[in-house]
Amino acid sequence: MAWSPKRDLIALANRAGEVLLHRLANFQRVWSLPPNENTGKEVTALAWRPDGKILAFGLADTKRIILCDVEKPESLHSFSVELSITYMHWMEVTEESSVLTSFYNAEDESNLLLPKLPALPKNYSTTAKIFSEEKSDEIMKLLGDVRLNALVLGGSSGFIEIYAYGMFKIATVNGVAGSCRGLCLSSDLKSLSVITEIQNSSDSEAEITYFQLDTSLLSSYLPEVTRMARKFTHISTLLQYIKLSLTCMCEAWEEILMQMDSRLTKFVQEKNTTTSVQDEFMQLLLWGKASLELQALLMNQLTVKGLKKLGQSIESSYSSIQKLVISHLQSGSEALLYHLSELKGMALWKQKYESLGLDASGIDEAITAVGSFILKANELLQVIDSSMKNFKAFFRWLYVAMLRMSEDHVLPELNKMTQKDITFVADFLTEHFNEAPELYNRKGKYFNVERVGQYLKDEDDDLVSPPNTEGNQWFNFLKDSTHLKESPLLFPYYPEKSLHFVKRQMEGVIDQCIQKPADVIGKSVHQAVCVSLYKVSQSEDSTSQLFKLPFLWNDKTSNLHYVLFTMLENSISKIHILRRHTDTSRSVSNGILAVEFGNFLNNSINESSDSSCLDAHFYDDETVTVVLKESVQQEGKERVLAQLPLSSVYVDEDQDRKSIWDSMERLDERSGEIPTRTVFLESQWRVLENMKAQYVSVNGIRKVSCVLSSNLRHIRVFEMDVEDDGEVEEEEEEEATQIAAGEPDEPNQPADGQDDVCDASAEELPDETEEHETSLDP
């Protein structure tokens, strides 16, 4: 569960692999995104971008991160990671400086200097939705606000990566052991707190450990990191635009265009004469006579109607591809060149950008790769141009020849054919109608009449029919010039390769160029503190790690990291609060406290209760929301939702200064040394009747909390700061329950409904809750 930071929306992920978005009012569903082959089925982490416009979720089975639009269940951007993600945190930088303010307020120069990218035609596949005519502003939505925000990913085997704007990797962090259970990057970018679960061997108990990492390089070079990240985010978006343009081009090319090749190959295999196909067509051109076999091929297999259709398909397909190359591919490539050239200028300012790993030589290689891609796109345009002329003349002649064979009337305007036209068709036949046995071994066909499709094939093979460069004066000049051959001013040209191949090569070079800053910044991150907290007993249930404590929080105003976790003491699960300053050099406020609660339901107010803490989340910088389990006799009244003000915990500032940072012992082995504070809450709690509440997700900005039952099938939503005639602060708004198997419109959910987060709305009376719980059991 994850509340939107800006709206009354909560995102839920269930075990069927669905991501669901619900509105607070009546718990109404806004949309659902079922699992599919492009995303995956096992959602392990959720995070909202700080502006609330994009939801990110991580998938364990496909190792992908999806950025999804809040308005519609559509993927705006996705990328793969090396290991499966177990936790995500998306933060916004709140630091201010005059340099940053001027950068934030300045208009992006690329908008002034570059023409607006043309929207992709919406009649192609769903992959192009992000840049389609209806969504031309989506690219800006994906880029978001100029103020730097960072998506921090934590996974198994100590995997941690930081992505600026959720798209560009600015750090690959090493040196942390175990599987990530929680992480939090401070808003001043000075430190990263991580909680991991370290399993030394399969039969030993896992150890929960807290790390504080020093990320001061990011905070020291914040304006430079922001500018660099913004540039790379533009580049990532443009690469996606080029990829989608190429996808549209592949869809515009039709399989029908291969008909001529396959029919001619079949003709070669079936004919009895030794005359070549080229000679057969030449005889028809020069003498107007065709062999019986050629007549059968033309009249029975190709047919006049089929020829017309083929001609129309070629014309419409080629002109569509031509438009996409000119308007989309070229404008996207030019914008890419612009941003890479700006990035090169930044890299040459070594005083500012060298420490961040920005390398001018790597960017030069990227610029060269984009240049090669533009050359290949231009080559495709020339091939389309000549193919359209050739096919037009060839089909016009063949159409008339076939009409004569069928003794149909030939219109006078079609009958005119000059000597120039005949020479043109003869040249076309000579060049395209040669039988090639080696081609049959490679592609299973003897001919390659259609020359455009080979450029759009996503394969490593060389082109079947590369362009003929013989006699090209520029090529001869380059060959003879020793100075120009290796010149960095000339983009390399790959005449044997397809457009797809050159595009993949370009993406690889740009990725390499982007990767270096992530490695350099990652290596600068070092461990400041490592504290072993406690051991996890193997008897614990295997509920998703999404919910479980520990929980991390960053207080932006006082620059403090807080860790909430529970440890067993005399069979009671006490909540512990550990806090550290984000500036690793400062020891102020660093320490740990244990909290126990006064009785809620008994009259004897001065006794400490046997309340066990089940879950805890920071509601805001001053308050923690907790779910407690009371040891009471009354059935259905053992769960309590409470608000714990930090002011009641941190009364004496020196109380938690116990030095725990230098010792090698685990905290649970030193629990007796940890100072404990007993807190008595007067009105800031509420009994959760008839609900086995286990987990809570809160949003202090919207003043709401969402409580989830232990079986993951019941949800109650509370408005937290409602005061009604002096009654308790928490006011239940509604409860939502769903029987997963009972909803016919949800085919993706498991039949028994066991594993689903509830997601449909239903008003229930409190005394009906238990009834519903039992009815859900299979």
UniProtKB/TrEMBL annotation:
It holds the Pfam family ANAPC4_WD40. Keywords: Cell cycle, Cell division, Isopeptide bond, Mitosis, Nucleus, Phosphoprotein, Ubl conjugation, Ubl conjugation pathway. GO terms for cellular component: anaphase-promoting complex; nuclear periphery. Residues 723-778 are annotated as: Disordered. Residues 723-736, 753-771 have a biased composition (Acidic residues). InterPro entries: APC4, Apc4-like_WD40_dom, APC4_C, APC4_long_dom, APC4_metazoa, WD40/YVTN_repeat-like_dom_sf, WD40_repeat_dom_sf. Residues 1-92 form the Anaphase-promoting complex subunit 4-like WD40 domain. Pathway: Protein modification; protein ubiquitination. Residues 552-719 form the Anaphase-promoting complex subunit 4 C-terminal half WD40 domain. Residues 210-408 form the Anaphase-promoting complex subunit 4 long domain. It is found in: Nucleus. GO terms for biological process: anaphase-promoting complex-dependent catabolic process; cell division; protein K11-linked ubiquitination; regulation of mitotic metaphase/anaphase transition. Belongs to the APC4 family. Component of the anaphase promoting complex/cyclosome (APC/C), a cell cycle-regulated E3 ubiquitin ligase that controls progression through mitosis and the G1 phase of the cell cycle. The APC/C complex acts by mediating ubiquitination and subsequent degradation of target proteins: it mainly mediates the formation of 'Lys-11'-linked polyubiquitin chains and, to a lower extent, the formation of 'Lys-48'- and 'Lys-63'-linked polyubiquitin chains. The APC/C complex catalyzes assembly of branched 'Lys-11'-/'Lys-48'-linked branched ubiquitin chains on target proteins. This is Anaphase-promoting complex subunit 4.
